[in-house]
Amino acid sequence: MAANQLWRWRALTDEGELQNGVMWAINRETAFSALMRKALHPLALVRCSQHHRWQSHHCYDVFRQLATLLKAGLTLSHSLEMLAQQHPVTQWQALLQSLADDLSEGCALSTALKKWPEVFSPLYVSMVKTGELTGKLEECCRQLAQQQKSQQLLNAKVKKALRYPVIILTLAVAVVLAMVTLVLPEFAAIYKTFNTPLPLLTQMVMGLAVFIQEWAIILATLMLIPPVVIYRLRRHARWQRVSQRIVLNLPVMGALARGQKLGQIFTVLSLTQQAGIAFLQGLESAEETVENPFWRDVIQGMREKIEQGMPVWSAFHHAAVFTPLCIQLIRTGEVSGALDLMLENLAHHHMEQTFQQADNLAALLEPILLIVTGVIIGTLVVAMYLPIFHLGDAMSAG
């Protein structure tokens, strides 16, 4: 539905009542026909702005509310219409109404969701389809909303833990550059008026300032090249595989990234197992939900080995990215027939561990970064004011 456009309409019913709303349609003619099928006579049809961003938190909020309405005994179509009327975002109002219209025409919800791949991931489609087949749609929607919310919170915490040192170091570099290029030259001009040798530390800092000023353009270019190259390569599958391997081998960041992905994978597997989906199909859902090609290759390799008759725990062991605890619990669950319970325990374990690691990382980096920035700025301040004491000694001797 990438070609869909958002339209704002105003129309009259057969009874002469004025109504208005929004809807998704490919073009004006399609929107006009859709209104006529609802016995609405269009008075105005205006295309809205083309810039639409789908926020993930709206998605799991909708499914959480949908599960509540279904549990209260409302029909699926009526629930979607109610959500469309109450949603604060215009584009979601139109989307939910479109889903309700598809249901009224005899379309299954999973099929209707499949028309919006930019909004609903394959996991949503798979879980809803399972709920439709098993008659547990309300339970599947509730579990799906909980899983997506937990995953979103985990992603936000990990990004926050990784973003903090970058911001601090960037500010430190900005302060150093400002002092070296703006403040130090003024002190250097003052010191030149006195015929007194400068301390070694001050000479080194002054030399650094001169070097930065003379080579500023080249240094700025060299600093901009890596971010630009990474930005352009970020969507290349080969670069994503290489960068993920590098990140996983880092001392602290590797454990954080590994725990985040393992928590996501085991959560999806646990969710699909509890919904009654076959394990191989659950692996397919997990493969579709991860974005990095490295992890897709890992899950695809495991799926192929299991299809060839290899035990589940052995396929996880050959992947060489799962912890010994994962292998042990999966093997226990496979032997005892409680694989869904073990997967759920692994999902909780990795998510809680990653939350704790993110908190520990932020707590550890804060004092270290304060010390580093303090040493850098303190050295510059001492280098600037140290000659003043030498000048005072020279003037006293004179």
UniProtKB/TrEMBL annotation:
Q: Give every Type II secretion system protein GspF domain span.
A: 63-185, 267-387
Q: Gene3D superfamilies from the entry?
A: Type II secretion system (T2SS), domain F (1.20.81.30)
Query: Matching InterPro entries, A to Z?
Result: GspF/PilC, T2SS_GspF/T4SS_PilC_CS, T2SS_GspF_dom, T2SS_GspF_sf
Keyword rRNA-binding listed? The answer is: no
- Transmembrane regions: 161-184, 204-231, 361-386
Q: Name one GO biological process term.
A: protein secretion by the type II secretion system
Question: Which PROSITE patterns does its entry note?
Answer: T2SP_F
What are the record keywords, sorted? Cell inner membrane, Cell membrane, Membrane, Transmembrane, Transmembrane helix, Transport
What membrane topology is given?
Answer: Multi-pass membrane protein
Q: What is its main location?
A: membrane
User: Which Pfam families does this chain map to?
Assistant: T2SSF
User: What compartments host this protein?
Assistant: Cell inner membrane
Q: Which residues form a coiled coil?
A: none
* Cellular component annotations (GO), alphabetically ordered: plasma membrane
Is the keyword tRNA-binding assigned to this protein? no
Which family is it part of?
Belongs to the GSP F family.
Q: What is this protein called?
A: Protein transport protein HofC
Q: What is the lineage of its organism?
A: Bacteria, Pseudomonadati, Pseudomonadota, Gammaproteobacteria, Enterobacterales
Q: What is the gene called?
A: hofC
